[in-house]
């Protein structure tokens, strides 16, 4: 096969374009993966509009899993037909951040099929910017993780989101028996966190989202874990200025929450949820909110609060998820609520952006 269908981003356009392009040829250290499943993340279109894609045109999609279709001459450890997932983080692999499980901070950090975050020369991104929303994707062999037999391709494609939740949970530094607040709980990151929470010492969840009905659907993911929900639509209209979210969270957790994992991309939720922390609590933000969290330094000092930002997971986080899946202690199949063929990739993106219906994780199956 010499040509393939791919979902591409073009210079000067904020739309997704379905295009037929040549199948990439693997170099000596590359592996060509026949994509069985690719994840959709709505944030990629916002980053495209913001100019964060440094190499256009490009094939979108930083989440992919499939089978090895071709192997470069100098690739160790992989053979035709192997089941794999692509770890999307392109980094130097040698700086202090890469050597201390903080690869997302590398000055060369970028993602296959996604954005580049640094401002230094990025030879790997220039070479491997094309992503997985295509029939095939070419990646350097060191970005591949073998898939356990028990892990299906759809879940494997979304390991990155699950690993992002693992990173946020690790940064929260939760004590055993913790009360955890999760905002934007009805989205991909929120639902991933709910599934993973029991593995990080959480004894009680408080889920915050816009819709009471959708929160009820997410609540069942927690299983027997005691879980409360708080819908923004049920707060007074002036809640963003009257601190009603903080008051409601304090009602649900009078002693305060041990941590808040905040995935909300805009608005006052981050600030008001932070104010509901217990002494020594941590707010971890991974939502890309451009708003301001106004906490006086004296309040941080008095309450011994920590506010932590993180923009991605690491390889270790992904391996943590794969280990849980392989041992059967984590089942993430139910998180995949929508599947689309590659020819309908634009509709998949639109569905994720509008969320006019309940939607947790979405994949495209070429």
Automatic annotation (TrEMBL):
The keyword Lipid biosynthesis does not apply. Gene3D superfamilies: Medium-chain alcohol dehydrogenases, catalytic domain. Keywords: Metal-binding, Oxidoreductase, Zinc. It comes from the Bacteria. Residues 12-359 form the Enoyl reductase (ER) domain. It comes from Actinomadura yumaensis. Its cofactor is Zn(2+). Belongs to the zinc-containing alcohol dehydrogenase family. InterPro entries: ADH-like_C, ADH-like_N, ADH_Zn_CS, ER, GroES-like_sf, NAD(P)-bd_dom_sf, Zn_alcohol_dh. This is Alcohol dehydrogenase catalytic domain-containing protein. The keyword Zinc applies.
